[in-house]
Amino acid sequence: MVKHIILWTLKEECNTDQVKNGIKKNLESLLGVVPGLLEIEVVTEKLPSSNADVMLYSVFEDGDALKGYAVHPEHVKAADTFVRPFTKQRSCIDFETK
User: Fold this and answer.
1) Is the pTM of this model over 0.90?
2) Whole-angstrom Cα distance, residue 10 to residue 90?
3) Which fold has domain 2-96?
4) Does the first or last residue of the chain, that is N or C, have fewer Cβ atoms within 10 Å of its Cβ?
């Protein structure tokens, strides 16, 4: 399995519940749509000690499934419409687990 975790910092003017809820709804709706995507969760409620605004936690069958997710039309549509326009910074880590 491959885990894919992203942290986003939103643009100041975009750090609203409406934007965060749009990111969450549209990315989580990819479960059952993107082959090899086993789990997906978007966290928008954070503790004050956090230095990111939104987190994506996802699990894939393998590295090929993660590659397929990156270019899947529904993922690209969600990212281009509901994520990228609102983000200032993105950090990502991908790793394999047993």
Assistant:
1) yes
2) 9
3) Alpha-Beta Plaits (3.30.70)
4) C
